[in-house]
Amino acid sequence: MGKDSKKHKKERRRERSPSTSDSDEERLQKRLAEQRSLKKDEKRRQKEEMKKNESAEEKRARRMEKKMRKDAKRKDADAEDTLIPPELNYTNLNNPFNDTKLTQTFVWGKKLEREGKSGLTQDEITKQTSQRIRKNLHEAAEFKRIRDSRAAAKEDMEMMKRDADLRAGQISDTKEREFQMDQIKERTRIRIDQGRAKAIDLLSRYARFADENPHTAKIPDFELENPMEYLKASCKSVDDYEDLIEDIKTYREVDGWAKNETWWMDVTRIAEDEIQKKAAQNRGDVHASVQTEVQNMFKNKSIDELLKLEDQMDAKIRGNSGNKGYWQDLDDQLKVFIARKRLREHHGRVLRLQLAIIKEEQKKEIQQQESEELLPVAEVPPQVKIQKEEEEEEEEDEDDEKISKKVRRKIDVQTLDDPELDEPERERKWRALTGDQLDDVTRELYRIGCYSPTYISADDTMPGIEILDEQADVDNLTERRNRNRGTLPSSSAASSGAPQGASSKMMAIAREGMEADESIFGAEEQLAAQRHLWSDKYRPRKPTYLNRVQTGFDWNKYNQTHYDQDNPPPKIVQGYKFNIFYPDLLDMTVAPRFGLTSCEDPDFAIIRFKAGPPYEDIAFKVVNREWETLHKNGYKCQFQNGVFQLWFMFKKYRYRR
Amino acid sequence: MSGVLKSDGLEIAHVEDDRGVQGEAAIIDVDDREEYFVKPLYTYYCTCGEMAMISDTLINRMPKRERDGARVITPDRTTAKTFAKPGETVYVKRSPAVGLEQQYRKMCKKCSIPLFYQHPSALNRTFILADALLSAQEVGGFSGNNEEQRAKKVIMKRNVKNQGKMGSVTVSTMEGEEEEEMEARETAESYTMNARIVHDALKRKGIGSGKFAVPQTPSSSSSSSAAAAGSETPSVKRKRGTLL
Q: Basic and acidic residues bias: where (chain A)?
């Protein structure tokens, strides 16, 4: 390489000399050439002297140094084309492959021959190889960039998807809640249609109607009743009221909390008051007589006055003046009173609106009829005036109950008995009627059917026949029925109150010979449901009874040792006396029977008495011990005069040591 | 007590007729469903407990007479059978402007209280005196056959199988229960039976080991009644609200 560069320099010099024609420059050139040749000769002389003087080791070091300098030069010249990474620090002399041409470009001779490129020089081969390698590296970098961008895009898509899923999850919760609210409304409608509505269903229907139709001329398809009637009819116990309060909260969530706020709060307060009443809690520090006076004070006052009174009471409670418990309790009662009064007034307003609508419709009908008769024009104005005056007078005097009667929906009787209507539909319509509606419908049916009998004049009857007075006849029948119902059986003789004649005789027979050691025994054992073939014809019932338990001391060895007459032992059951009354037994010739069965407690047994119709079986739980069955020991088993008597004592065991 | 069907809905095909290809036994399953409405019968009693009337209509749905509150049994819209013996003929004085009403009264077979009456002009109509009859619930007591049932829809399923020479027809009116539910219920019942048997066996062993215990002195009547009453288990607080 060095020789080639020297040749290059010489060629350049030769090229320059013919172009220069100046003599001065020629002289400078000659002098420079001479000086250069002199320096070279000196250097050559110095080298030869050093070579002569140096030792073998110095010679080896010099040569290594020279070679390394050459390698460094070559390395610098080929720095751009070097393929070995700089971290490896591999050189031609220092590499684990023992390859002295490591830094040179590999030449694949046979391939070049095959491709017809054997004429290329080393520089060209190196250049092509470098270009190919650079292109490959560039392509790899391009692929890496594409892969990274694709991964980043995928990650972005995943992030967006996750956000969308989160948002959708929140929406699904909301939709679930909305679905439940819709189902509540749907279930309410179904319960009302099927005639098994709850209090919350009726209240919500009333609230929705009163809210949606304040001035619309729409007649409701149900009977407008006072909301308090819904509460009384549906809610029977504390649990029902508590359920109602929760249901009201749920329904306000369905319809929106702001709708009918005052109305719902009033209903809730009344329900809470009913809960307190049924729980029989103490009403505070107010005496019972004062409560009546308080209620009278609240009456005959408008809602505004009551609200002012409430403010005054709140001020007194806050000011701690007087008896705080008294004012607190009074304030609670006042709130409930205001709620009830407000509900009543609201209902009155709704009814008056409905009445006005109905009257408008009636006026329209009258006008239509009058328009058909146009001839008597002169008579129309005075009639209208008279009607207006009458209506004004009626409106002032009417009460809420009268208004509700007028607003009451007229029932189409023909629809209920329509033969084309199928059975389920008819049954549903009948069941939807209230008590008053049912009464009206049945009276209308009687009138339509023309069931009234023909009446006879008093003159047409025979002279001596007995004529019953209407009221006297009714009274007589009622008395006989009550006497019949009075003899119905009760669960025990003690609760029968005033027994009748026959019962008193039976009672006397049963109580005969009662001693101080005996007490009335009335713990009846509950039997499973009994079914008899005759239960369709006769009303099954339980017989009445008067049973006694015989108690006394048991002077066994243990008790003789530890007790005496002054300090007696506890009494034990020594016997039973069952007296069961069967006054209405159909077949008096067959006596009742009894049987013993075991029960869970081995110390006790169940004795069961069985008789014929119309009496059901009756059972008692008795001590499980052996009976004495001899008459002289108190055993008695007889059925006489409608009284079944079973008396027995338990056996006593005595032994001698 | 359900009403009898007027039309014969059980047209059972002759199962031996082979409807398939001749020579080959064809298995044919025919599933048929028929819905009809069951109206229950209501039993009414006299105040003494004697059965007085069976009707397919509730008393409070019969036409009501304004004058005395009686109800009318009309043959065209009510089917009812009365159980009563003939009573006396009575002339009831209504208001002076109206006149006298002649009634043929019928009495209870047991206590002889008048329950029904008829008029000479229309013997096909029977009137029920007001407050004379009591329903099963009003009389009180328990009777499995007389609970006032609501009118309900009954689904009758008819399944016809025809397998050549053999065939079977299954008619079922079970209320909406399918075979799977029946099998599940039978399995549960068998489990219950096994549990009861095991319980009895354990109890028997317990009683056997009890022989060596010291026998207790029999207690008095008050303690026996107290033992019979037993202690009440504290009830778990129930969730409030019925809508959700």
A: 26-60
Tell me the shortest Cα–Cα distance from A268 to chain B, in angstroms.
14
Whether A362 and A437 map to the same domain: the answer is no
* Nearest CA distance, B23 vs chain A (angstrom): 47
Considering only alpha carbons, which residue of chain B is nearest residue A487? B48
Pick from A200, A424, A549: CB nearest B243:
A200
Q: Residue A106 corresponds to which tokens in the numbers above?
A: 């590999």
Inter-chain touch A451–B92, beta carbons under 8 Å: no
pLDDT category of residue B23 using cuts at 50, 70 and 90: very low
Task: Using alpha carbons, list the distances in angstroms from residue A579 to A520, A543, A618.
Answer: 11, 10, 12
DSSP A75-122: HHHTTTT--S-TTT---SSS-TT--TTTTSPP--HHHHHHHT-TT--H
Q: What is the 3-state secondary structure (H, E, C) of A491-547?
A: CCHHHHCCCCHHHHHHHHHHHCCCCCCEEEECCEECCCCCCCHHHHCECCECCEECE
Count of C-beta atoms within a 10 Å radius of residue B125: 16
Examine residue B145 and state whether it is found in any structural domain, yes or no: no
pLDDT in tens, A24-44: 777 788 878 988 888 888 887
Do A411 and A361 share a structural domain? no
B92 and B54 in one domain?
yes
Window B:195-234, CB contacts with A under 8 Å: 207, 210, 216-221, 224-225, 227-228
A356-406: pLDDT as tens digits: 877 777 777 777 766 655 444 444 444 444 444 444 434 434 455 555 555
Are B113 and A451 in contact (CB < 8 Å)? no
Is B191 inside any structural domain?
A: yes
How many domains are contained in chain A?
3
Q: What is the pLDDT of residues A318-332, one digit of tens each?
A: 776 677 677 777 777
Q: Is some CB atom of chain A closer than 8 A to the CB atom of B14?
A: no
Asked if B242's CB is within 8 angstroms of A243's CB, the reply is yes
The number of domains in chain B is 2
| Shared domain check, A529 and A429 | no
Tell me which residue range forms the domain holding B166.
155-205
Given a cut of 60, is residue A496 above it in pLDDT? no
Residue B78: inside a domain: yes
Question: Which of A415, A432, A449 is the last residue in one of the domains?
Answer: A449
Residue A481 to residue B142, Cβ atoms within 8 A: no
Residues of B in contact with A484 (CB under 8 A): 46-48, 111, 113
For B104-151, what is each residue's pLDDT tens digit? 888 888 788 888 888 888 877 788 988 888 877 666 554 444 444 445
Listed ranges A125-134, A527-536, B7-16; the one with the highest mean pLDDT? A125-134
Whether residue A539 and residue B221 make contact (CB cut-off 8 A), yes or no, is no
What is the model's pLDDT at position A125?
82
* pLDDT (mean) for B44-60: 82
Pick A180's closest partner by Cβ from B74, B224, B244.
B244
Asked if the structure places residue B195 within a domain, the reply is yes
Residue A607: give the domain boundaries. 516-650
Closest Cα in chain A, distance from residue B194 (Å): 19
Residue with tokens 């033992």: B227
| Model confidence band, residue A140 (pLDDT cutoffs 50, 70, 90) | very high
Is A121 among the domain residues?
Answer: no
Cβ distance B45 to A242 less than 8 Å, yes or no, reads no
Count interface pairs A-B at CB distance under 8 A. Answer: 193
- Taking CA–CA distances from B52, the nearest residue in chain A reads A537
How far is B225 from chain A, CA to nearest CA, in Å?
Answer: 7
Judge whether A587 lies within some domain: yes
**Residue found under tokens 């026949």:** A465
The C-alpha atoms of residue A517 and residue A539 are separated, in whole angstroms, by 38
The answer to whether residues A562 and A631 belong to one domain is yes
- Domain harbouring B119, CATH code: 2.170.150
Which residue type does A335 have? K
- C-alpha dist (Å) from residue A140 to A131, A135, A136, A147, B6: 14, 9, 6, 10, 92
Start-to-end C-alpha separation, chain B: 37
Domain final residue pick, A429, A449, A469: A449
Q: Are residues B95 and B177 in the same domain?
A: no
Percent of chain B with pLDDT strictly greater than 90: 0
Residues B50 and B105 in one domain: yes
